[in-house]
């Protein structure tokens, strides 16, 4: 038998209590989360001990009980867990063993009272002491599993505690809080009210693996399915859980369970939705995963766990080694979290790749919903190779099906070294762009892109594996093998000699609008097209940047004319008769307008185009 003794708290604990009582947190509800999490840990420990010490098997059900007394204003949290010996109580509750406590407190002291920055709080798990935010006195009675006596601990949070013998029929811990009076001004709800308690439990502790009871009622669902082996979970359960966390009525397209072991322990359950949310492109989109620490809810919409280009992925992450009150500020720098994030990205990209291989139809559907978002990831170099492998695009060879880069490469013609692509404002506009004509006529396949993001990432990616990506809307496209290219350029050279003077004349007419008028090797049926100079932005990219408010020195496009087109012969005839014929200027206007229409479906100067057209019609009338 030992008698009741009075102990002083360790200096650090006193300081911490002081902070706690003068409220570090604005959200006082978290005290219950902390105490329940401790009980859950204690139950885990008992369950584990029983594996090797069956004699601990007696006792009651593994559970956590809440009891409230409205008149006495007490709230009791008790568990049938492992309990503590007297020494353990002194060690665990009277001192803070955690390293860095001193440093933490020093840093807090050096900031002015009431201005404790949240990132400091986040570094520190405050646990048990947080109960002093809501209680002026705390009593704890605990009995260690396998031992006879119980220990009783009590404190008013005033720098000292008493410790002595207690009474407890079975192993476990009972904590009684003598609550502050209810006070709406200090944001202190009535913690004896069943509804208030049920609410907090639902919010923070729903998935705790043991029943949390209030009277006859169990307040939590206990249904954490993320740490159960995949083989034991029914498909329907996964779907049910998805609906629970996503508020989406549809089934998910894919479920991705993740288990990490080794240097850190974490579980995740990720889902790829079947449909894009309406706000996928809005900065206000609710995104991010739910973060748990050992089944205790910590944070909603945790954006730090996945990069923005995977923002459509829903799910939960349960990281076992993070502190419960980790803040967003901490998460951004936390090394563990970086490791977890890397793993999650790897898993998601792996799952997408698998779907692409094994469930093509579903993948095509997924790509139509989320492809443009995934492609945002191609703007950075991280994971670029993996992301490039996920890209699907229509191509000139396969009008119905979408192609990957890999499949494109496997179909490339002998002697073709680059991957040809074309970007445009809509799928229809790219598919019928005149820029494709020569390539298609000569049997070269071109990948077609029409999402706004495409032009940007294609610019940056530059190559797929060892193949350069080459826009056929830019510079001199040199299609085909070296031999073919040589032949083509000789033929073009000859045409250039033939049309040289005419081209110079047209250039003079259009000098305000284009950089150059030249003959094209890419057209077979259209008379004209616009292209960008090798190092200039394409016309579409210029428009896009202009929309973003990026003022750029305007770069003029090049107008390319089809040397094989009948319109060239007609122009040549007019030009030979008189190089001053006003029709030459009108034709030039129309060709430029047509090229603009083919490029964007829009005319930069509709009035001028219309006027030139009318003049030609009137002039051509007999
Ligand atoms: P943490 O949970 O982060 O260790 P706490 O301040 O919440 O910090 O708890 C301190 C310690 O007190 C725990 O590590 C545990 O050893 C002990 N403890 C607290 N509550 C219980 C309980 N209900 N049953 C058994 N041990 C407990
Ligand atoms: Mg704790």
Question: Would you kindly provide a brief summary of this structure?
Answer:
The chain has 20 helices and 23 strands. With 622 residues, the chain is of the alpha+beta class. The longest helix has 29 residues, at 482-510.
Could you explain how this protein is built, in words?
The structure is a single chain. This protein has a nine-stranded mixed sheet with strand order 1-6-5-4-7-3-2-8-9, with helices on one face. A five-stranded mixed sheet has the order 10-11-14-12-13, with helices on both faces. Strands 18-17-20-19 form a four-stranded mixed sheet. It has 20 helices and 23 strands. 39% of the residues lie in helices and 18% in strands. Strand 8 (212-214) and strand 9 form a beta hairpin. By secondary structure, the protein is an alpha+beta fold. It is elongated, with a radius of gyration of 36 Å.
Q: What is the class of the largest domain in the CATH system?
A: Alpha Beta
Give the uncertain stretches in residue-range form: none
N- to C-terminal distance? 125 Å
- Classify the beta-strand content into a percent band: 15-25%
Contiguous helical run count:
20
CATH H level, superfamily name of the largest domain: Histidine kinase-like ATPase, C-terminal domain
Helix content: 25-40%
Q: What's the CATH architecture of the largest domain?
A: 2-Layer Sandwich
- Can you count the beta strands? 23
Query: Order of strands across the biggest sheet?
Result: 1-6-5-4-7-3-2-8-9
Computed structural class: alpha+beta
């Amino acid at each position: 038998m030992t008698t009741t003794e009075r102990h002083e708290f360790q200096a650090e604990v006193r300081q911490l209590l002081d902070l706690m009582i003068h409220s570090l947190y604005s959200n006082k509800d978290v005290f219950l989360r902390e105490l329940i999490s401790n009980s859950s840990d204690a139950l885990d420990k008992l369950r584990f001990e029983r594996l090797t010490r069956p004699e601990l098997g007696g006792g009651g059900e593994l559970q956590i009980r809440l009891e409230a007394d409205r008149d006495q204003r007490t709230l009791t949290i008790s568990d049938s867990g492992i309990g503590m010996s007297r020494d353990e109580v002194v060690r665990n509750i009277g001192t803070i063993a955690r390293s860095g406590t001193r440093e933490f407190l020093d840093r807090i002291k050096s900031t002015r009272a009431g201005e404790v920055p949240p990132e400091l709080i986040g570094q520190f798990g405050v646990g048990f002491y947080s109960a002093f935010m809501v209680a002026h006195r705390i009593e704890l009675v605990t009995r260690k599993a396998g031992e006879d006596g119980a220990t009783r601990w009590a404190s008013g949070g005033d720098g000292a505690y008493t410790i002595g013998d207690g009474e407890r029929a079975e192993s476990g811990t009972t904590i009684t809080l003598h609550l502050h009076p209810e006070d709406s001004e200090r944001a202190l709800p009535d913690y004896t009210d069943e509804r208030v308690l049920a609410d907090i439990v639902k919010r923070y502790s729903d998935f705790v693996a043991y029943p949390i009871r209030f009277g006859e009622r169990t307040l939590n669902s206990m249904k954490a399915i993320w740490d159960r082996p995949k083989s034991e979970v029914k498909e329907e359960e996964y779907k049910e859980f998805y609906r629970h966390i996503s508020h989406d009525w549809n089934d998910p397209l894919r479920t991705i369970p993740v288990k990490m072991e080794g240097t850190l322990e974490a579980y995740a359950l990720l889902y790829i939705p079947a449909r894009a949310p309406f706000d996928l492109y809005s900065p206000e989109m609710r995104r991010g995963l739910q973060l748990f620490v050992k089944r205790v809810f910590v944070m909603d919409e945790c954006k730090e766990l996945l990069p923005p280009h995977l923002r459509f992925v829903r799910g939960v992450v349960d990281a076992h080694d993070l502190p419960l009150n980790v803040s967003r500020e901490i998460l951004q720098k936390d090394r563990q979290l970086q490791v977890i994030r890397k793993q999650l990205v790897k898993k998601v990209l792996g799952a997408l790749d698998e779907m692409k291989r094994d469930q093509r139809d579903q993948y095509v559907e997924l790509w139509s919903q989320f492809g443009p978002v995934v492609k945002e990831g191609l703007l950075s170099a991280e994971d670029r190779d993996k992301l490039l492998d996920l890209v699907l695009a229509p191509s000139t060879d396969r009008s119905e099906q979408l192609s990957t880069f890999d499949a494109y490469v496997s179909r490339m013609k002998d002697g073709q070294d680059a991957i040809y692509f074309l970007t445009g404002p809509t799928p229809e506009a790219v598919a019928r762009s005149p820029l494709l004509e020569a390539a298609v006529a000569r049997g070269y396949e071109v990948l077609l892109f029409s999402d706004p993001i495409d032009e940007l990432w294609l610019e940056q990616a530059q190559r797929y594996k060892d193949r350069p990506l080459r826009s056929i809307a830019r510079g001199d496209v040199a299609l085909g093998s070296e031999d073919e290219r040589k032949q083509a350029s000789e033929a073009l050279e000859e045409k250039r000699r033939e049309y040289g003077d005419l081209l110079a004349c047209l250039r003079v007419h259009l000098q305000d609008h284009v950089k150059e008028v030249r003959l094209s090797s890419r057209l077979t049926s259209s008379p004209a097209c616009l292209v960008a100079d090798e190092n200039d932005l394409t016309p579409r990219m210029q428009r896009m940047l202009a929309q973003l408010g990026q003022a750029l020195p305007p770069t003029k496009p090049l107008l390319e004319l089809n040397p094989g087109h009948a319109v060239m012969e007609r122009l040549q005839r007019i030009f030979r008769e008189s190089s001053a014929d006003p029709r030459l200027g009108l034709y030039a206007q129309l060709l430029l307008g047509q090229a603009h229409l083919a490029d964007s479906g829009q005319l930069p100067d509709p009035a001028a185009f219309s006027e030139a057209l009318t003049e030609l019609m009137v002039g051509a009338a007999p």
